[in-house]
Design brief:
With about 130 residues, the protein is mainly alpha-helical. It is about 40% helix and about 5% strand. A hairpin with a 2-residue loop joins strand 1 and strand 2.
Length: about 130
């Protein structure tokens, strides 16, 4: 039987470069009050900044969007277009990010992973988010 761990455990496992077993990581994060028994971040962990909540609300101002995803500060404002209330990037920018991805630090990779989670994933670089 394969155990499916919550995303925070999987992220922690990747962050620590698989040096700590997932079960141990879960126990430690739970005991430290970072996650609850379901693996969701605790309010305290969110307030202390131990965990970041990537809740992208509709109709964010572009500056608010950049606060949520600072990795996008490297791209020109012109690369973005707000479609149905969400900031999207064209295919060319997605391909550029896909090429840069292996060289990015952990935090930047997390930001991109979260941004693309609801957009089909970063690996699907054939999808044009502007619908062109």
């Amino acid at each position: 039987m394969k155990i499916i761990y919550p995303p925070l455990i999987e992220d922690g496992y990747a962050y620590f470069k698989q040096q700590t077993p997932k079960a141990q990581l879960y126990q430690e994060m739970f005991q430290q009050g970072i996650i609850d028994e379901t693996g969701a971040p605790t309010t305290e962990a969110l307030q202390k900044g131990l965990v970041k909540d990537f809740d992208e609300a509709e109709n964010l101002l572009f500056d608010e969007f950049l606060e949520l995803y600072p990795i996008f500060k490297v791209l020109s404002d012109l690369s973005f277009k707000q479609i149905e209330g969400f900031w999207e990037i064209p295919l060319t920018a997605k391909k550029q990010l896909l090429a840069l991805y292996p060289e990015l630090n952990y935090d930047h990779k997390q930001q991109l992973d979260m941004y693309f989670l609801e957009r089909g994933g970063l690996q699907h670089a054939s999808d044009d988010h502007f619908g062109m």
